[in-house]
Amino acid sequence: MALVPRIVAQTRDRLGESPLWHAGEQAIYWTDLYGPTIHRLREGGAVESWRVPGTKHLGSFVFVSGGWLLLAIDTGLVLFNPTTTAFTPFGDPNEGREGVIYNDSKLDRSGRLWVGTADLAEVAPRGILYCVDASGRPHVGDSGFAVCNGPAFSPDGGTLYFSDSIGRRLIAYDLAPGSSRLRNRRLFVSMGPEDGVPDGLTVDAEGGVWCAHYGAGRLTRFAPDGHVLTTIDVPCPIVTSMGFGGPDMTTLYVTTGWTPGVARAEDEPGPGGALLAYDTGIHGLAEPEFPMPPR
């Protein structure tokens, strides 16, 4: 698929992540993991940014009812109100394990949080994929990964897709409605060194599974049976994640970073660290919201 990206915002993120479209606000949100910073861009507006204090990493976030966000930071899950800039601790499934950080997260079609952790050195299989319900109670979905990435869900919610980044593979699981138990774990796609590292995932309305290839400057859209439907070149090697948005949900927003070893963001050639957008003609799915916990 020969598509030309637009630079939506050049925020020079060290590692942009988690692009999520908020339909009610007509705004795209994304993060810089190392900022650690949250960005928001409303249609026709300027970029708003919030730096998150007291943490080195902002792994990901999801939307919460009432206009809040649920952030995954070093110390656990934290509720954030962009209007008041208030932060409220919510829970810590990781239970403070040293050398393990939170990484990608996503809500399933029922609004439950699936959040993964990662070994900070990206070597030891210490990462766990958790399911967290509205009460904050965590359940282990799967474990034994150096870096948990993804996750994403089929349109009917019955399949969870997951990136085992260091293992260079995508895994699929069956997920029953109302259950936090993953079944029928199976290999979805295996990748080689030339494919980079599988990173963020999203699923479109047709069931296509999109994967960002970190280090390879590419996006791939897979069919539900795992065969390649299309690939899109990204004009920088560090491509981390993508998500659909825009008024008709056909814009694919893509987060990027700048190359390790480059000392300064301004020395990075090309659009590294920018939020990009591709007009795909393919419809995405609206993100659910996590129910606001009692406070």
Describe the model.
With 295 residues, the chain is an all-beta fold. The chain has no helices and 24 strands. The strands form 6 sheets. A 4-stranded antiparallel beta sheet has the order 1-24-23-22, with no helix packed on it. Strands 2-3-4-5 form a 4-stranded antiparallel beta sheet, with no helix packed on it. The protein is globular and about 45 Å long.
Topology:
Blueprint: E1 6-9, E2 16-22, E3 27-32, E4 37-42, E5 47-51, E6 58-64, E7 68-73, E8 76-81, E9 86-91, E10 100-107, E11 113-119, E12 127-132, E13 138-145, E14 148-153, E15 159-164, E16 169-175, E17 182-190, E18 197-203, E19 209-214, E20 218-222, E21 228-233, E22 239-245, E23 251-256, E24 275-279
Structure summarized in a few sentences:
The protein contains no helices and 24 strands.
Tally the beta strands.
24
Q: What is the H/E string?
A: EEEEEEEEEEEEEEEEEEEEEEEE
Question: How many alpha or pi helices?
Answer: 0
Overall pLDDT: 95
Annotation keywords:
4-stranded antiparallel sheet; single chain; 295 residues
